[in-house]
């Protein structure tokens, strides 16, 4: 497992941008696919985006495709989520997670991830 710490959340107006960062500790970061999920009160955790280890493929939820971009810097043990054209419905706690798999089908499921950060709040005002 790896230890994950998110940062970069905050309050932004609709149409604005934020960049989330997730710093990982551990020497095996490059062997994990990294994902972002989000959750609002009373709802299940929702897949947002993931970047696989090795080949670096990226996958997105339809709701964020074209607006969000995930990237990873294995030299810095960090994964990012650039969020543009934010909407009020993007308001949630965003979680970074690590998974020891590169299968797209599995990476869209939160149960595939064995390490999670503490979450960072993103609030988009209308």
DSSP strand (E) fraction? over 45%
Shape by Cα distribution: globular
The overall pLDDT average reads: 95
- Span between termini: 38 Å
The biggest sheet amounts to: 7 strands, mixed
Helix tally equals 1
Properties at a glance:
126 residues, mainly beta
In short:
The chain has 126 residues and is mainly beta. The protein contains one helix and eleven strands.
Lay out the secondary structure:
Layout: E1 3-7, E2 10-13, E3 18-25, E4 33-39, E5 46-51, E6 58-60, E7 68-73, E8 78-83, E9 92-99, H1 104-107, E10 115-116, E11 120-125
Parallel strand pairs: 2-11
Antiparallel strand pairs: 1-3, 3-8, 4-5, 4-9, 5-6, 7-8, 9-10, 9-11
Please tell me about this protein's structure.
The protein is mainly beta and 126 residues long. The chain is built from 1 helix and 11 strands. Strands 2, 4, 5, 6, 9, 10 and 11 form a 7-stranded mixed beta sheet that branches. A hairpin with a 6-residue loop joins strand 5 (46-51) and strand 6. The longest helix is centred in the last third of the chain and has 4 residues, at 104-107. It is globular and about 40 Å long. The relative contact order is 0.31. The mean pLDDT is 95.
